[in-house]
Amino acid sequence: MLCVGVYRDPSFRAAVIDELYVCEERFVAPSPGADMVYVLAHALRARRVEAGFAALTLVLWGGFGFFTQGLVLLWLVPLALVALSEVARGQAPRAAPHRVVSAGVLTLCGAFAALLTVPLLAGGELWGWGAGRDDVPGGQTFLALLLPFVLAEVVDLRWRWLAAVLHRELSVEGFGRPGAGSFGPGGAGVLVHRGNDRFRRVTRRIEEEQHAPLVMYRPENPFCGVGVPNEPWSLSVELRPREGHVPGPVDNRAILRHLVPTLERLRTPSTLGETDGVRDRLRLLEIEEVVFLPVEGLPHRDVGPRGSGAFEQHRTHAVEEGGEARRYYLRISVVGWDGQLVVTVFVRVHTQGGILVLELVPFTLHPVKAAYRTADREAQEWRRGGPWDRASWVFQRVPGATLAAPVTLLRHYVATLRAAGRSRALPDGPAVSVRELGSDAELPPFQAMDAQRYLTSIKERVATEVRQSLYEAGWQTGEFERKVVSVASGGIFIESAHGAVGIGDGNTVTTHMSGEQSAQDEQEDA
Prior knowledge:
Layout lengths: L1 H7 L1 H13 L13 H32 L8 H14 L7 H25 L16 H31 L3 H5 L11 H7 L2 H13 L4 E4 L10 E2 L3 E6 L13 H13 L21 E9 L12 H12 L8 E10 L4 E12 L2 E11 L4 H4 L1 H10 L2 H34 L13 H4 L7 H28 L5 H11 L3 E5 L2 E6 L2 E6 L2 H11 L1
Parallel strand pairs: 1-4
Antiparallel strand pairs: 2-7, 3-7, 4-5, 5-6, 6-7, 8-9, 9-10
Helix pairs in contact: 1-2, 1-3, 2-3, 2-14, 3-6, 3-14, 4-5, 4-14, 6-13, 6-14, 10-16
């Protein structure tokens, strides 16, 4: 769907090319459920085609203007008014009333201006304006009247090509077909090898980085690429031995060794017997170890830590340290709705000085924008439309295509110049995530319910296993359980010398860790 977006949304396409191709010193953000190589390939292809149609549009204006001695410039006023009406309405499916009114007024003004332009092109007089122009040759008048139809044919050609791409290559059936053009799964390798040196270099880096366990980040946005943050968990408890037990050592590795198998059991359906019919997305739950590294200090993007050897080295040192810049997390993710919904939870456990700290940082990656998801359907409806419907649809887009042509060429030229001047730029972390840029702002109801269920299941399982690890090692768990209940209910713990106070929606918990309370905990844990 992101590949569709680069054809439908020029701003999104420009952002993709800028982030992945122009600024090649930037590491690519994690892209769960997507492959940025395909997205970049389609973005560059769409830019080339758009630039070609824009150049053709300007050539037609220049040629017709030359042979009509500038007579076609009279069309600029009505075209500009209609194009401004599209800008006034915006791209929202349901525009605000004032936008609809503004767009309607501008459209009527544009239509009226077009009606007034026709007699002027014929050399007539309109309210005293245009008198003395009876010497306009008939050939010039014919060419001036013909220009809108020629521009409409260019727009129709462009949309026929786009509809073919959406239907044959980027539809659900077309993209899954082996060998679906040069941009489907069967031909991606051919596309990469046919690109220029810069494209092959950039795509090689993207393939190495987008799903790597070593995540290079900017300090201001370390979790770039995983979606919208949810309410994080962060709680700390003091480790106290249980009465009558000699507690064993509890370190980060020991807790994680217990945690991974417990999380893996979420993949198992609760029903007994045949499980092939169970399609819960938790069966596809993914558990990975990741290490976040700052990008500062690297001399070049290619000398960054890569490969399994570098990851093992950083993981060995990061898993037991409460590092600030380098951080180890257990990444738990669930991908649902055909890759449209991605729920990710980062888990971090740290023990130091008799204190256990548990961090859970959840994120939700929203589905791709609705306009991208429905593009194939719109293309099919356009192809099936009658001649009058298609003609009306095309003529409505001639003004926008005319005014967008110089902007498209200028943007292409500026991007080319920027790309040529960044060969010696120092490496940097990802500024934006392409997957996040192409996502909707809100979750539909069903997907929001699924995301909440995934998050709740993961949080409950993590909290249960950490408590079990403490209990088996001979430590008290009463305080930990109370804090988990408070934080899970949306509470916030305020630590004090006398204990902890949990405050949240419908939740007020006060604990005073006196000697009497500590003894009570020991009795509960015994």
